[in-house]
């Protein structure tokens, strides 16, 4: 894991590049106690997903009697290896879907609602007319 300060860059919610130089702290925090269970310090350009597995393994190593049921993470952690590591801990992963890593799903809109052949969402077309309930689709 890189430890020297480095430049980092990412796009913010407005689509503009944000730059920083320095370090990045990665924390594993218990949601009930708000205690920091694990911490890593890395270069500012390290991808968050690369720090998750060492953090999860560190929590298991340093707190052998601590068991967590859920691991909640943002879309930067949407990698299969992280899901596998959480499953090894006998927990459930709650990770936001990262749509930048996958192609567009045909037959579904941006909210994963089914669409017709013309790519119109059933949710937006049928709901105002009360013709079909969402459970029936």
Question: Can you describe this structure?
Answer:
This protein has 3 helices and 5 strands; from the N terminus they run E-E-E-H-E-H-E-H. Strand 1 (6-11) and strand 2 (17-29) form a beta hairpin. The strands form 2 sheets. Strands 1-2-3 form a 3-stranded antiparallel sheet, with helices on one face. The chain has helices spanning 48-62, 80-88, 122-126, and strands spanning 6-11, 17-29, 36-43, 70-73, 92-95. Helix 1 (48-62) packs parallel to helix 2 (80-88). By secondary structure, the chain is α+β, with helices and mostly antiparallel strands. It has 2 domains: 6-102, no CATH class; 103-137, no CATH class. The N and C termini lie far apart (47 Å). It is 21% helix and 26% strand.
């Amino acid at each position: 894991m890189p430890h020297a300060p480095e430049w980092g860059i990412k796009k913010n919610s407005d689509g503009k590049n944000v730059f920083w130089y320095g370090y990045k702290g990665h924390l594993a925090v218990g949601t009930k106690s708000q205690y920091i269970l694990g911490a890593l310090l890395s270069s500012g350009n390290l991808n968050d997903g690369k720090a998750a597995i060492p953090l999860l393994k560190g929590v298991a190593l340093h707190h052998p009697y601590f068991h967590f049921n859920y691991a909640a993470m943002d879309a930067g952690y949407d990698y299969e290896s992280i899901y596998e590591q959480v499953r090894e801990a006998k927990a459930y992963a709650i990770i936001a879907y990262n749509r930048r890593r996958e192609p567009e799903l045909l037959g579904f809109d941006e909210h994963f609602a089914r669409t017709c052949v013309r790519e119109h969402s059933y949710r937006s077309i049928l709901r105002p007319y009360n013709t079909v309930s969402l459970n029936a689709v």
